[in-house]
Amino acid sequence: MVFQEVLAAHDARVNTLRKTLEAQDPVSAFAGHWQFILREINYFPIFNVAREVLLTLTAGPDVESAFRQLADRALAIVNKRAALRHDLVGRVYHRLLAEKIAKHLGTYYTSVPAATLLLKLALDRSKWGNVDWTDLAALPEQFKVADLACGTGTLLMAAAEAIADNHVRSSAESGVSPDLSGLHRALVEGVLHGYDVLPSALHLTASTLAMRAPEITFQQMRLYCLPLGGPHHRLGSIEFLVDSEVPITVDLFGPTAAVAMVTGKGDLAQRAAPLPKLDLLVMNPPFTRSVGHNLLFGSVPEGERKAMQRKLAALLRVPRSGADSAAVMASSTAGLGSVFVAVGDKHLKPGGRMALVLPKGLLSGVAWGKTRELFKHAYNLECLVVSHEPDHWNFSENTDLSEVLVVARKHNADGADNTPQDVTCVNLWRNPNTVFEALGVAYAIDASQAPDVELGQGASELTIGDTKFGEAVSVPWSSLRQNLWMPPCAFAQSELVRAVHHLIQGRLYLPGQPVSRALRLCALGDLGKLGPDRRDIHDGFRLSKAETAFPAFWGHDASAMRTLAQSPNAYLSPLARAKKGRPLRKANVLWPLAGDVLLAERLWLKTQRVTAVHVDRAVLSNVWWPFAGHADDAELDKGLVLWLNSTLGLLLLFAHREETRGAWVDFKKPVLKDIPVLDFRALSARQRGVLAEAYHRFSAEPLLPFPQMNVDPVRAAIDDAVSKALRLPNITVLRELLAREPVVCLRPLE
Prior knowledge:
Helix content: 25-40%
CATH architecture of the largest domain: 3-Layer(aba) Sandwich
CATH superfamily of the largest domain: Vaccinia Virus protein VP39
Radius of gyration: 29 Å
Distance between the termini: 43 Å
Largest sheet: 10 strands, mixed
Number of domains: 3
Mean pLDDT: 88
CATH class of the largest domain: Alpha Beta
């Protein structure tokens, strides 16, 4: 209905909605008029399915009343012209199908403001000096954009808008008039490529792109519906890992044709979807992961799904092009998102860019390690954007998972311009809610010169009018790519980002003061060994109601876990036989890994109080990592627990978190063992004594939840003891800053 009303303004043969509603039977009138549009004008992806729906409706006053209400709403929408420019139909689609789509396909749809921000950053003209945005004849051949999981086309629409902006600005600078109609034809027919496994989503992509300029007749659209499942166990766009064409069986026109003919008569049949070499890959890929209740390809029957998973595993073992033995740099454990990034890399031109919406786990997640390795060796990371707005950690509409926007440039084949540059790390205090806010933030980022997190001071403040949307700092890619990407994106306040950066280097930074003396730090794994994870515990033991030889510490009740000193609260009994579908773990292998120090495996930062505790006996646990020191040194163990609950310890720990959903964070074993901690081996007897005495003084004192650390006298006393032992200045300012971090207190910064 919306498209009919828009089309009527450009084609006299098309009736307005009001004229069609005058018919005695408006449902039949619309069905007949849409048949006329299909026969005489086409717009098949928009009107054919709609007409088929009308033909199934039975007659009755309720149907007619509902139909007239829809028409009234369509008229109201068209009167608000701006609504038509930004994927309106996609928003409706997401709202109606969000739960089903997210559950079975792991598909989360990018919000329009996030898409606008991401594509304005990726298509900043200063980054594409070799592209002539005014040469519309050459643009379709010289510049290719694709989304391998395009959904309803939000990112493609944002790309079109950003390119249109570049065209207008470049035309003005060249003294020529912009040709927006010609540009739109070039974009739709040759530049923009969309691929998905849902025909309905592609119908809406076609509708949205066509609605940008309904008066233009297109010869074709580069939109392809790829098969998922079936007798050949097809994997959708993942098939592009092995070829630049994927066989297809359905498209916007039905079961045989492949290329969408949006307007114009006739149809162009094609049995394979081609993927050209790309200048820009835009994507918000599926997030489903191969862990827990494995939902990889969850929309297909279980037996078929397992075959598809086996096929994917085989594809990931295939050596990359030009590599001797290295397999695809992706892990299905991280989810299909990691795989889609590898697919895009295969088809991205040297010097091309990726603009991605990914889980925030990319920054520090163990499963995302291969993807970070791919970027490390073949890309210059240009920009990371994260949100620190409570309950708005995401950039997708139908999820509350924490996400990150990524812009990265692929190395040139000749080595030119491959020198590592600075990465702009944007920490949003407010997530843009409108396109206009997103444009303002993008311009603020591009216009500012973000100061270096180590050598500079302050931050680039991203302000629109009187509203502050966040801060940005820069980090040399040469240093960031060797480590986890989380630290410069860990906190909203740049002073904490800078403090963590220096702390990782073994230096103390306090706002407004010179960088202080060096701290002797080492990896946690240098001091001892972490015990088994919860899966191994459950494969080797069961909880026992009676006291056994295997004490345990079970659960993490925030209201009960208030002190640093604890005692076992459960007992385990070895399993006699394996659980169904699981291996049997040997008790004599697991029990030697018990420890008297426990480190939190996961935390809800809003309510919990301790990151580590000391137990009076060695234990195993289901939600804590046991830790046993290499040396039988009670002072070291207790000092470590004190350090990990001090402000400096919390800063380092939180900066290496794997963030799932805001304050809900994990600490994975491979990351935890590498986290910098105070090197107790290098301390003097006096220093060890000060820390040991402080532990005994405060171990039984209840701590307040993390958001109240700024008013917690016990936490302050712990910090004073650490400062005294290490001869550091007062660090109260860091504790106060950390207490008001949104991820800790779940309150926005002002």
